[in-house]
Amino acid sequence: MNCKLLALLCCSFAACATPRAASVAPWKVDSFEVHAYDETVGQCVLAALPDARRAVALLPGLRPTGVARIDVGPFGPTELLGYTCFFPDEPGREGQIAIASDADSWYMTDERVSATLAHELTHFSLGPEWGALPAVLEEGLCNWVATRAAPGIAPEDRLCVALCVARLMGGEAAVEVVLEEHLLDVKLHRSAVCEGLAEVPEMLALGRFELWSSRWSERADELYALGHLLVQRIGVTRLHQLCVAARERGLELIPASEVLAAAGLPLDRPELWWASVLAMTGTPERAGLVTWLSGSMPGFDLRLREEP
Question: Between the CA of residue 305 and those of 36, 124, 213, 235, what are the distances in Å?
């Protein structure tokens, strides 16, 4: 077991090839049409829609939408869970959501499907008021909504975010992950945590359609984790205010300096970042991860230590 596990555990939602055409007749639910290749997962998406929509409705600044299409189909060999397509060259065409029906078995639970759906519905629903939101923070906002739709996943997700942020800060040396039979042994090395923070302003300068073409595209788990941490610290109301203020000033994106100030995480205070990481590795977080992974690996246990 190596650090690739961290990418798997920290949910990723990326662009992907279009899934195969649905083979099950579509279901119509309010303003949504669900098309499914796999009827079982399609039914799970249908059941998740009410909670996902309620969670998205917690956000201000949502746009009016037409009929939304949700495709549930196999994506092929991938860790992908879902993605949202927009068609800027076709102004009259509504966006489209895709949900994987062949993701890793760890993710094919009702709560994980609900979280994925809520995440993608958030991308789909954000209105122009959110236009100045950096891509990294948009992913963090989508994850905030996902954990409101499926609160049972929040503890293990916080731990996954902590490990990914530590790796963002200190590189591969910051997080040592070893699997010994059914024991996941994780060491966080404080001495490695520092230099990666210098990249954060550039990460926060990525717009909505730039994240997957950036030089960090292979480190998406770290970008998502960064967004998750910052949104949790800033809060949704304050984040929306920052977006509105940036647009009123004619700015394309909220400046990174304002994001970090609102989060209370200046780049010259790595100890505050490290404290935020450790705050997401407590007993509830560890127990949540053990419970989740025990579904696929009975008897699974976790040992997490902070090293100098």
Answer: 43, 39, 35, 29
- Helix ranges restricted to H, 33-99: 39-56
Cα torsion through 268, 271, 272, 277, rounded to 10: 130
Residue that has been written with the tokens 């499926």 in this structure? 150
- Distance, in Å, from the CA atom of 139 to the CA atom of 294, rounded to the nearest integer, reads 27
179-228 pLDDT per residue, tens: 887 888 999 998 888 889 999 999 999 998 898 899 998 898 999 999 99
Residue in 18, 263, 273, 49 with CA at minimum distance from that of residue 140: 263
Separation CA 252–CA 161 (nearest Å) = 27
3-state secondary structure at position 235: coil
Beta carbons within 8 Å of 124's beta carbon, 6+ residues apart: 65, 68, 84, 95, 97
Nearest by Cα to 202 from 270, 142, 134 = 134
Cβ neighbours of residue 227 closer than 8 Å, sequence gap 6 or more? 136, 137, 138, 139, 140, 141, 143
Rounded Cα–Cα distance for residues 190 and 145 (Å)? 31
What pTM was computed for the model? 0.90
The neighbouring-strand residues paired with 140 are none
Alpha helices in 133-173 (DSSP H): 135-149, 154-170
Q: Is 251 exposed, middle or buried (0-12, 13-18, 19+ CB in 10 A)?
A: middle
CA distance 81 to 11: 8
Looking only at the bridges linking them, the beta strands covering 68-73 and 96-100 are parallel
pLDDT, tens digit, for every residue of 35-77? 998 888 899 999 999 999 999 999 999 998 877 899 998 887 6
Q: Are strands 82-85 and 96-100 parallel, antiparallel or unpaired?
A: antiparallel
